[in-house]
Amino acid sequence: LAITGTPMENSLYDLWAILDLVAPGLLGTAIGFRKRFTLPIATGEAPQRMEQLRRRIRPFLLRRTKELVAKELPEKHEEVLTVTLSPEHRAVYDSVLQRERKKVLGLIDTDLDRSRFIVFRSLTLLRMMALDPSLVDAEEYADVPSSKLEALFDRLEEVIGDGHRVLLFSQFTTYLDRVAGELSARGIDFAHLDGSTRDRDAAVSGFRDGDAPVFLISLKAGGFGLTLTEADYVFLLDPWWNPAAENQAVDRAHRIGQDRQVMVYRMIAEDTIEEKVLALQRRKAELFDSLTDGGEAFRSAVTAEDLRELLG
Protein backbone atom coordinates (compact mmCIF):
# COMPACT_ATOMS: atom_id res chain seq x y z
CA LEU A 1 0.00 0.00 0.00
CA ALA A 2 1.46 3.35 -1.06
CA ILE A 3 0.05 6.56 0.39
CA THR A 4 1.06 9.97 -0.95
CA GLY A 5 -0.33 13.44 -1.34
CA THR A 6 1.72 14.01 -4.51
CA PRO A 7 1.60 10.90 -6.75
CA MET A 8 2.98 12.89 -9.67
CA GLU A 9 5.29 15.83 -9.10
CA ASN A 10 7.24 16.19 -12.33
CA SER A 11 6.27 13.57 -14.89
CA LEU A 12 4.37 10.34 -15.48
CA TYR A 13 7.49 8.45 -14.41
CA ASP A 14 6.67 9.40 -10.79
CA LEU A 15 3.43 7.45 -11.09
CA TRP A 16 5.20 4.48 -12.68
CA ALA A 17 7.70 4.32 -9.78
CA ILE A 18 4.94 4.19 -7.15
CA LEU A 19 2.84 1.57 -8.95
CA ASP A 20 5.89 -0.56 -9.70
CA LEU A 21 6.37 -0.90 -5.94
CA VAL A 22 2.81 -1.91 -5.10
CA ALA A 23 1.95 -3.77 -8.31
CA PRO A 24 5.22 -4.91 -9.93
CA GLY A 25 4.92 -5.36 -13.67
CA LEU A 26 1.57 -3.59 -13.99
CA LEU A 27 3.04 -0.89 -16.21
CA GLY A 28 6.01 -2.86 -17.54
CA THR A 29 9.59 -1.68 -17.34
CA ALA A 30 10.56 1.96 -16.98
CA ILE A 31 11.91 2.00 -20.54
CA GLY A 32 8.82 0.32 -21.91
CA PHE A 33 6.53 2.70 -20.00
CA ARG A 34 8.40 5.67 -21.42
CA LYS A 35 8.02 4.39 -24.99
CA ARG A 36 4.41 3.26 -24.64
CA PHE A 37 2.95 6.07 -22.54
CA THR A 38 5.23 8.93 -21.49
CA LEU A 39 6.51 10.00 -24.91
CA PRO A 40 3.25 9.55 -26.88
CA ILE A 41 1.29 11.44 -24.23
CA ALA A 42 3.92 14.18 -23.98
CA THR A 43 4.01 14.80 -27.71
CA GLY A 44 0.26 14.44 -28.18
CA GLU A 45 0.84 12.00 -31.05
CA ALA A 46 -1.24 9.20 -29.49
CA PRO A 47 -4.01 10.68 -27.31
CA GLN A 48 -5.59 7.23 -26.95
CA ARG A 49 -2.62 6.20 -24.78
CA MET A 50 -3.88 8.44 -21.99
CA GLU A 51 -7.19 6.58 -21.92
CA GLN A 52 -5.36 3.23 -22.01
CA LEU A 53 -3.21 4.27 -19.05
CA ARG A 54 -6.21 5.60 -17.16
CA ARG A 55 -8.07 2.30 -17.55
CA ARG A 56 -5.04 0.28 -16.48
CA ILE A 57 -4.39 2.15 -13.23
CA ARG A 58 -8.01 2.83 -12.25
CA PRO A 59 -8.45 -0.38 -10.15
CA PHE A 60 -5.26 0.44 -8.22
CA LEU A 61 -5.70 4.15 -7.60
CA LEU A 62 -7.97 5.75 -5.02
CA ARG A 63 -7.87 9.54 -5.11
CA ARG A 64 -9.34 11.65 -2.35
CA THR A 65 -8.91 15.40 -2.50
CA LYS A 66 -8.80 17.64 0.53
CA GLU A 67 -12.22 19.00 -0.41
CA LEU A 68 -13.67 15.50 0.01
CA VAL A 69 -12.00 14.35 3.23
CA ALA A 70 -11.64 17.63 5.12
CA LYS A 71 -14.88 19.41 4.39
CA GLU A 72 -14.67 21.23 7.71
CA LEU A 73 -11.63 23.21 6.56
CA PRO A 74 -12.24 26.93 6.00
CA GLU A 75 -11.97 28.24 2.47
CA LYS A 76 -8.67 28.91 0.74
CA HIS A 77 -8.46 31.80 -1.72
CA GLU A 78 -5.57 32.21 -4.16
CA GLU A 79 -4.63 35.35 -6.04
CA VAL A 80 -1.83 36.16 -8.45
CA LEU A 81 -0.19 39.48 -7.59
CA THR A 82 1.31 40.81 -10.81
CA VAL A 83 4.37 42.96 -10.16
CA THR A 84 5.35 45.56 -12.75
CA LEU A 85 9.11 46.00 -12.96
CA SER A 86 10.49 49.49 -12.50
CA PRO A 87 12.24 51.00 -15.57
CA GLU A 88 15.66 50.28 -14.01
CA HIS A 89 14.73 46.71 -13.15
CA ARG A 90 13.17 46.16 -16.59
CA ALA A 91 16.26 47.41 -18.41
CA VAL A 92 18.70 45.06 -16.68
CA TYR A 93 16.29 42.11 -16.92
CA ASP A 94 15.77 42.58 -20.66
CA SER A 95 19.51 42.89 -21.21
CA VAL A 96 20.22 39.57 -19.49
CA LEU A 97 17.22 37.95 -21.21
CA GLN A 98 18.57 38.78 -24.67
CA ARG A 99 21.99 37.37 -23.80
CA GLU A 100 20.68 34.14 -22.25
CA ARG A 101 18.04 33.64 -24.94
CA LYS A 102 20.69 33.67 -27.65
CA LYS A 103 22.80 31.18 -25.70
CA VAL A 104 19.99 28.75 -24.89
CA LEU A 105 18.31 28.78 -28.30
CA GLY A 106 21.66 27.93 -29.82
CA LEU A 107 21.97 24.92 -27.52
CA ILE A 108 18.43 23.75 -28.26
CA ASP A 109 19.28 23.55 -31.94
CA THR A 110 22.42 21.46 -31.30
CA ASP A 111 22.33 19.00 -28.39
CA LEU A 112 19.79 19.83 -25.69
CA ASP A 113 20.28 16.66 -23.64
CA ARG A 114 23.99 17.31 -23.12
CA SER A 115 23.41 20.98 -22.40
CA ARG A 116 20.62 20.75 -19.82
CA PHE A 117 22.83 21.97 -16.97
CA ILE A 118 23.79 25.11 -18.91
CA VAL A 119 20.16 25.67 -19.89
CA PHE A 120 18.99 25.25 -16.30
CA ARG A 121 21.63 27.73 -15.15
CA SER A 122 20.38 30.31 -17.66
CA LEU A 123 16.78 29.83 -16.58
CA THR A 124 17.76 30.14 -12.92
CA LEU A 125 19.67 33.31 -13.70
CA LEU A 126 16.58 34.83 -15.33
CA ARG A 127 14.42 33.83 -12.38
CA MET A 128 16.85 35.57 -10.03
CA MET A 129 16.92 38.68 -12.23
CA ALA A 130 13.12 38.85 -12.18
CA LEU A 131 13.14 38.55 -8.41
CA ASP A 132 16.03 40.84 -7.48
CA PRO A 133 19.02 41.67 -9.74
CA SER A 134 21.34 41.98 -6.74
CA LEU A 135 20.98 38.22 -6.22
CA VAL A 136 22.99 37.80 -9.43
CA ASP A 137 25.62 40.47 -8.78
CA ALA A 138 25.36 42.55 -5.62
CA GLU A 139 27.95 45.09 -6.81
CA GLU A 140 26.88 45.56 -10.42
CA TYR A 141 23.19 45.88 -9.55
CA ALA A 142 23.53 47.57 -6.18
CA ASP A 143 21.56 50.60 -7.38
CA VAL A 144 18.76 48.60 -9.02
CA PRO A 145 15.87 48.20 -6.57
CA SER A 146 13.90 44.96 -6.46
CA SER A 147 10.42 45.76 -7.76
CA LYS A 148 9.07 42.65 -6.08
CA LEU A 149 10.52 43.53 -2.68
CA GLU A 150 8.76 46.89 -2.82
CA ALA A 151 5.47 45.28 -3.87
CA LEU A 152 5.80 42.66 -1.14
CA PHE A 153 6.12 45.18 1.66
CA ASP A 154 3.29 47.31 0.30
CA ARG A 155 0.98 44.33 0.82
CA LEU A 156 2.74 42.75 3.81
CA GLU A 157 2.54 45.75 6.11
CA GLU A 158 -1.18 46.03 5.43
CA VAL A 159 -1.73 42.33 6.24
CA ILE A 160 0.33 42.47 9.43
CA GLY A 161 -1.38 45.69 10.45
CA ASP A 162 -4.71 43.85 10.33
CA GLY A 163 -3.41 41.30 12.83
CA HIS A 164 -2.68 38.40 10.49
CA ARG A 165 0.34 36.09 10.59
CA VAL A 166 2.18 35.25 7.40
CA LEU A 167 4.29 32.51 5.80
CA LEU A 168 6.73 33.76 3.14
CA PHE A 169 8.16 31.07 0.81
CA SER A 170 11.00 31.36 -1.70
CA GLN A 171 13.38 28.93 -3.42
CA PHE A 172 16.22 31.42 -3.02
CA THR A 173 17.68 31.64 0.48
CA THR A 174 19.62 34.74 -0.55
CA TYR A 175 16.33 36.46 -1.30
CA LEU A 176 14.91 35.40 2.06
CA ASP A 177 17.99 37.04 3.58
CA ARG A 178 17.13 40.25 1.69
CA VAL A 179 13.58 40.13 3.01
CA ALA A 180 14.90 39.43 6.52
CA GLY A 181 17.09 42.52 6.33
CA GLU A 182 14.14 44.66 5.29
CA LEU A 183 11.96 43.22 8.06
CA SER A 184 14.65 44.06 10.61
CA ALA A 185 15.02 47.58 9.23
CA ARG A 186 11.28 48.11 9.65
CA GLY A 187 11.22 46.65 13.15
CA ILE A 188 9.07 43.65 12.21
CA ASP A 189 9.77 40.48 14.19
CA PHE A 190 10.15 37.23 12.23
CA ALA A 191 11.23 33.59 12.34
CA HIS A 192 13.48 32.05 9.68
CA LEU A 193 13.88 28.48 8.39
CA ASP A 194 16.11 27.31 5.55
CA GLY A 195 18.59 24.53 4.85
CA SER A 196 21.24 26.10 7.06
CA THR A 197 18.99 26.29 10.13
CA ARG A 198 20.60 24.06 12.75
CA ASP A 199 17.60 23.63 15.03
CA ARG A 200 14.58 23.25 12.76
CA ASP A 201 12.23 22.36 15.63
CA ALA A 202 13.24 25.46 17.58
CA ALA A 203 12.56 27.70 14.58
CA VAL A 204 9.12 26.17 14.07
CA SER A 205 8.12 26.22 17.73
CA GLY A 206 9.47 29.75 18.02
CA PHE A 207 6.96 30.89 15.42
CA ARG A 208 4.07 28.74 16.64
CA ASP A 209 4.47 29.67 20.30
CA GLY A 210 5.63 33.25 19.80
CA ASP A 211 4.20 36.49 18.51
CA ALA A 212 6.32 37.03 15.38
CA PRO A 213 3.93 37.89 12.53
CA VAL A 214 6.20 36.58 9.76
CA PHE A 215 7.87 33.22 9.09
CA LEU A 216 10.46 33.17 6.28
CA ILE A 217 10.74 29.66 4.86
CA SER A 218 12.84 28.08 2.14
CA LEU A 219 10.51 26.03 -0.06
CA LYS A 220 12.82 23.02 -0.04
CA ALA A 221 13.54 23.12 3.70
CA GLY A 222 10.06 23.83 5.02
CA GLY A 223 7.59 23.20 2.23
CA PHE A 224 6.39 19.91 3.72
CA GLY A 225 6.00 18.10 7.03
CA LEU A 226 5.10 21.18 9.09
CA THR A 227 1.88 22.34 10.70
CA LEU A 228 1.72 26.13 10.80
CA THR A 229 -1.97 26.87 11.19
CA GLU A 230 -1.14 29.91 13.31
CA ALA A 231 -0.66 31.69 9.96
CA ASP A 232 -3.59 32.50 7.70
CA TYR A 233 -1.70 34.28 4.89
CA VAL A 234 0.82 32.67 2.54
CA PHE A 235 3.05 34.52 0.07
CA LEU A 236 4.83 32.52 -2.66
CA LEU A 237 7.52 35.01 -3.60
CA ASP A 238 8.67 33.25 -6.77
CA PRO A 239 7.20 30.40 -8.84
CA TRP A 240 8.77 26.95 -8.83
CA TRP A 241 8.64 24.49 -11.73
CA ASN A 242 6.77 21.95 -9.63
CA PRO A 243 3.18 22.91 -8.72
CA ALA A 244 2.94 20.05 -6.21
CA ALA A 245 5.79 21.54 -4.17
CA GLU A 246 4.00 24.88 -3.99
CA ASN A 247 0.74 23.25 -3.03
CA GLN A 248 2.53 21.42 -0.23
CA ALA A 249 3.90 24.74 1.01
CA VAL A 250 0.46 26.34 1.04
CA ASP A 251 -0.86 23.36 2.96
CA ARG A 252 1.40 24.20 5.91
CA ALA A 253 -1.32 26.72 6.79
CA HIS A 254 -4.38 25.25 5.07
CA ARG A 255 -4.74 21.97 6.93
CA ILE A 256 -6.64 20.36 9.78
CA GLY A 257 -6.46 22.69 12.76
CA GLN A 258 -6.93 25.85 10.73
CA ASP A 259 -10.02 27.78 11.83
CA ARG A 260 -9.68 30.83 9.59
CA GLN A 261 -9.92 31.48 5.89
CA VAL A 262 -6.48 31.18 4.25
CA MET A 263 -5.32 33.73 1.68
CA VAL A 264 -2.56 32.78 -0.76
CA TYR A 265 -0.68 35.32 -2.86
CA ARG A 266 1.50 34.19 -5.78
CA MET A 267 3.81 37.06 -6.68
CA ILE A 268 4.67 37.08 -10.39
CA ALA A 269 6.88 39.62 -12.14
CA GLU A 270 5.05 40.83 -15.24
CA ASP A 271 6.41 39.99 -18.69
CA THR A 272 9.26 37.86 -17.32
CA ILE A 273 10.15 34.18 -17.17
CA GLU A 274 7.99 33.95 -14.04
CA GLU A 275 4.82 34.25 -16.12
CA LYS A 276 6.06 31.42 -18.35
CA VAL A 277 6.89 29.22 -15.34
CA LEU A 278 3.39 29.77 -13.99
CA ALA A 279 1.91 28.64 -17.32
CA LEU A 280 4.12 25.55 -17.29
CA GLN A 281 2.95 24.76 -13.75
CA ARG A 282 -0.65 24.78 -14.89
CA ARG A 283 0.13 22.39 -17.72
CA LYS A 284 1.75 19.94 -15.29
CA ALA A 285 -1.24 20.12 -12.98
CA GLU A 286 -3.61 19.49 -15.87
CA LEU A 287 -1.56 16.45 -16.92
CA PHE A 288 -2.33 14.72 -13.62
CA ASP A 289 -5.95 15.84 -13.71
CA SER A 290 -6.27 14.40 -17.21
CA LEU A 291 -4.96 11.08 -15.96
CA THR A 292 -7.33 10.83 -13.01
CA ASP A 293 -10.35 12.84 -14.15
CA GLY A 294 -10.38 12.48 -17.91
CA GLY A 295 -9.16 15.93 -18.92
CA GLU A 296 -6.90 16.81 -21.81
CA ALA A 297 -3.24 15.80 -21.53
CA PHE A 298 -0.28 18.14 -21.72
CA ARG A 299 3.48 17.63 -21.84
CA SER A 300 4.96 16.21 -18.65
CA ALA A 301 8.52 17.46 -18.96
CA VAL A 302 10.40 20.57 -20.05
CA THR A 303 10.92 20.08 -23.76
CA ALA A 304 12.73 22.14 -26.38
CA GLU A 305 9.42 23.76 -27.26
CA ASP A 306 8.85 24.61 -23.59
CA LEU A 307 12.25 26.31 -23.50
CA ARG A 308 11.44 28.40 -26.56
CA GLU A 309 8.24 29.47 -24.85
CA LEU A 310 10.02 30.27 -21.58
CA LEU A 311 12.47 32.49 -23.42
CA GLY A 312 9.92 33.99 -25.80
Automatic annotation (TrEMBL):
UniProt cross-references to PROSITE patterns, sorted A to Z: HELICASE_CTER
Alphabetized Gene3D superfamilies for the sequence: P-loop containing nucleotide triphosphate hydrolases (3.40.50.300), Tandem AAA-ATPase domain (3.40.50.10810)
SMART domains recorded: HELICc (SM00490)
Keyword Hydrolase attached: yes
Protein name (record): DEAD/DEAH box helicase
Entry keyword set: ATP-binding, Helicase, Hydrolase, Nucleotide-binding
Keyword field contains Nucleus: no
One function term, GO molecular function aspect: ATP binding
Limits of the Helicase C-terminal domain: 148-312
Matches recorded under Pfam families: Helicase_C (PF00271), SNF2-rel_dom (PF00176)
